[in-house]
Amino acid sequence: MLQSLIDLIQEMGFSYVTWRMIVMWGVALVLFYFAVYKQFEPLLLVPIAFGSLIANLPTEGIVNKPSDYLFTPTAGVVQNVFVEHGGKVTVPRVINEKPSSVAYIAENPEEFEAKVKEYFAFIDDVTSPEGRKDAFKNAKGIPDLVAIVRPDVDVSKLPEEERAVAEKTVAVKYKGQEFEVKGKDILIWAETSGSVADVPAVKGAKVASGTKLVDVYSPRTGGLYYYLQQGILLEIFPPLIFLGVGALTDFGPLIANPKMLILGGAAQFGVFATFFGAIMLGFTSPEAASIGIIGGADGPTSIFIANKLAPHLLAPIAVAAYSYMALVPLIQPPIMRLLTTEKERKIRMKSLRKVSRLEKLIFCVIVTIFCILLVPDVSALIGMLMLGNFLRECGVCERLSKAAQNEIINIVTIFLGTSVGITMTGDRFLRVDTLMILALGVVAFSFSTGAGVVMAKFMNLFLKEKINPLIGSAGVSAVPMAARVSQVEGTKADPTNYLLMFAMGPNVAGVIGTAMVAGFFIATLAH
């Protein structure tokens, strides 16, 4: 009876709670505060916040992966296989630690040998029957190590610090096997609990990237969000969001005042400034490009490019992009006021001419053809954006237009927001590189906002009909949030001034501009 009670308590989630989870609960509460109390884009922040809360609980059936083959992520030689046909592999409910390579265990060459030996002794104890029971009790969160692959990497071409670790060799012991590991060795962990149905991997065999190593069988299917997140990984959700944005947006202000394209282009300055800043901080060019797009305040495009260039950074980039989109009313106003005078904020702009339906339809077709021919890599985003707008403006597809504006975009927003939030686990986010991405995101967004305002002021030096510089901040892609902020700041200076429609011009231009910049990065940096 007592043992049954102990087993029941161990199966509960309380023993899995860690300090990281508790910190992330606080983060979720902050997001709820901004969404519910401050009403900063609650349609985005509420799903993200709730997803992050679920992500930091010891769940079952949420993000679990279905049983399948384990593959090698890189070409190389199989150094060790730690499972056999008919054996069992176990993955804890909460995974707290799963380094992708030996180098992640100890990045400092001086501490490398001691830390690697200590780590392998630790996981060897955890994966023993006695140790595993203790691991569950104390929420160690260590899955079974299945195999080790030594990749085909030319160590001489690595940066000096990475080379020093990659060349290190340490003798260790795991599951009764004594062997040597190097810093560059890749660790293959169990992804789901189950029985080992097949072991194609053979020690010493040379394998190509994507080679099957071990087949694990489990009667359980994958968790709910394992499948919903495929909408992000398979690049389904971002184009669908663009479809809804196109159906909701009036391109008339941009067509009536084409000069607004310049403001939308100026806002991309933050993207490139952050790109170079991220490279200086040690990120690779593909990683820096993915981080820089945060400056465009375009969540779907940020997900789209990160999925292609830096999938390992998809979670923090997506969260940063969507969080800053929602916090537009908090971040932009101080920058706008700092860069403008009260006189400039009171500038009244001449009423826009009425744009005909034919002009809008021709615009959709021309932009689709031109942008896709110029940057084919963003065909999905541009094509769906213009399709949505064509449905809106053609006048004969009202049901489809309303579906894109309401049911489709609302459903996708729930799934996309919670899928983004579900990636906000403490072990992913309470890291130096993640915090650097969040900080760079603020820098990118601030630079984009400031560049749009400054460009409007510069244009006024040559224009007879002056532009209110506040609408320059709307050059970021947050539609229509950034345009609303321009309107709010304008009415603070002059309650009778109406800037919303004027701000929609650079706002739409920013959406197109950020997508084009993303396509440029993908075309030049994707391997």
Structural features, described:
It is a single chain. A hairpin with a 2-residue loop joins strand 5 and strand 6. The chain has 24 helices and ten strands. The protein has two domains: 69-221, no CATH class; 228-525, no CATH class. Helix 14 (299-309) runs parallel beside helix 24 (500-525). The protein has helices at residues 2-11, 19-37, 42-55, 112-126, 129-137, 160-166, 224-228, 230-233, 237-248, 252-256, 260-266, 269-280, 285-292, 299-309, 314-326, 328-339, 342-345, 357-374, 379-394, 398-421, 426-429, 432-460, 481-493, 500-525, and strands at residues 69-71, 76-81, 88-89, 145-151, 169-174, 177-182, 186-189, 194-198, 206-207, 212-217. The chain has a four-stranded antiparallel beta sheet with strand order 1-10-8-3, with no helix packed on it. It has a four-stranded antiparallel beta sheet with strand order 7-4-2-9, with no helix packed on it. A two-stranded antiparallel ribbon has the order 5-6. The protein is an alpha+beta fold and 527 residues long.
Radius of gyration based on Cα positions: 26 Å
Q: How big a fraction of the residues is strand? A: 5-15%
Number of helices: 24
Main beta-sheet annotation: 4 strands, antiparallel
The rounded distance between the terminal residues' Cα atoms is: 59 Å
Estimate the mean pLDDT confidence.
86
Unreliable stretches covering 5 or more consecutive residues: 135-139
- Per DSSP E runs of 2 or more residues, the count of β-strands stands at 10
**What is the helix content?**
55-70%
Tally of individual domains: 2
Strand order, biggest sheet?
Answer: 1-10-8-3
Structural class: alpha+beta
